Each structure stands twice: as C-alpha cells, then as structure tokens.
Amino acid sequence: MAEKPTILVTRRLPDDVEARLDRDYLPKKNAEDRPYSREELLSLAQGCDGMICTPTDKIDASLIAELPDSVRIISTISVGFDHIDLEAAKAAGRPVTHTPNVLTDATAELAFFLVLAAARRAYEGQKILRTDSWSGWAPTQLMGLQVSGKRLGVLGMGRIGQAVAKKARGFDMEIHYADQFRLPPEKEEGAVYHETPEALLGVSDFLTLHCPATPDTIKFLNAERIALMPENAIVVNTARGPVVDDDALIAALKSGRLAAAGLDVFQGEPNIHPGYRELDNAYILPHMGSATIETRNAMGFMVMDNLDAFFAGKDLPNRVV
Hints:
Shape: globular
Strand content: 5-15%
Number of helices: 12
Strand order of the largest sheet: 8-7-6-9-10-11-12
Structural class: alpha/beta
Radius of gyration: 22 Å
Order of helices and strands: EHEHEHEHEHHEHEHEHEHEHEEH
Helix content: 25-40%
Oligomer: single chain
Number of strands: 12
C-alpha cells in the first residue's frame, strides 16, 4: 500500500474533519491553534505533499516560490481566496481549491442577525444588564429602529445576498439590490434592481454588503457614499473588511449620520480599528459568519474531497486555478 500523503494543516479543524484527516492522511497539525509566521509555514511545509490553509495565512508569491517542491496542492478552508496569490500558484503548477456554496445559509443568518441587533440596540441592552446599571423599564429606554417594512439594500446579489433577501422578506422588507448583472425575474422575486451601487445607496434604510474585495470595491463605503444614504440608515458587513473605509464609517456613527452598524469582518483582522470599540452603536463580531457546526464540518469535508480527488488523479471539484 502506498504511503499516505503528508498534509500541513495550518489551524485546528472540527473534530469530525480531523478524524477523516487522520484516517486518510498523515497530517502535521497546529497543536496550539495559532497563526503561523511565514518562517514557520516554510519550515513545517518541508516534506509535505499538500497544505490546508485558512484566510489568516498569507500565501503570497514569495512564500509560494519558496515552498518545497513536494507541496503540490494548496487547499483553503474558505470560500474566499484573496489571501493566496493565484497567479503565483498557477505559475508554480500548484492547484488551489476552496470551499464554495456551503457557507451561504450560515452567513446569511448572521447577516440578518446583525440587521436586527444593530437596529434594536442589542449591545447597549446587554451592556446595561452586564454592568448592573439597568434601572427598569421606561417608555424611552433604548428605542431602536423597526426593521419590518423598511428598505433593504443588498450590494452583491450572489448566493448569500439572495439568501439574506429571502430572510428579509419574512420581515416584510422591501428588497433593492445592485450587482454587475441583473438577476432573472424568478430569482429577483420582486427585488428592485439598481444599475449603480450609488443609486442603491439612496434607497437603503439598511445596507448589507456581500461583494468581494477587489481594486474596485476597496473602501467602497467611504464618506462620499455614506452621504448618499438616508439619514439614520444602518450598515451591515459580512463580506470583506476592506470594502469599508473604517475612518468614514466610524465618523458617521459618532456623528449620528448613521444610526448603527453591524460588522463581522474588518480591515487588518484581528487588529481592528480601535475606534469601533468605543462605539455603543457598533455591534461587532469576530468574523464568525460561517461558524456553525454544520457549516464548518461541510467546509472541512469539502477540503477533504478536494484533496482526495487530487491525490487520486481526478478532476478537482472546487478548483480556483
């Protein structure tokens, strides 16, 4: 019997996924479950046949060039792959795979949770209870914004954007969206299409971001675009941190130009802009959109499917390059 391939695993995986990994491969695991430095990645990759990485790993061109020849595949446990230099991987003849489609429902659930939490001032309510400063019910205490009947703007109407819109319809929200291409009527389900993101902003009582981080979307939500939004609007971001200009959003939250924000992703994670920590009207979470048992297991099993196909000489089911 051929020896099992050795796989560098940069972070701890769910127990069921690691059980399958132990059965079919020889994994080099991250016992401390902390981000590896560049030097550690290169050292640990020696003698490995493949790598399972995460969005916290910077797999740039220089690292790819210095990986040992034995590393023949890079498989990321994420739908996004902007942490990997795809051109460098392609030039090196190392296929890259990812885990699309299985994150949709979990991320959409969290996005709509942030809509509700930001609108209803959930952090402030928790704060007064946990600090024992609640004096009891009062008619004007912590009055938030009602969600039902409001206009939801969805920037990026892919699978996750559509799933959020579906949940929002249950709250009788009016759905508006902008994307590169208009959806067919059966997928729009009555949503109003806007040809430009700027046109969408003007009707977004709530704006939920579901676009990738590209040169065109970096710092998309800046001061000029915030000014296009209705007064007292709410921003939710479960997409990518860099699509928001942190200084502009924080200024708008401080001034009251925006009522609140619900954020699960940040520029420079885990070193988020300290200004968010000072704001009671910023409901912030540590990038946990896909953090359900069901979804993280599905992601892990998809990584394993990708590796299994590669080492069996079959077509890769979720190949990026």
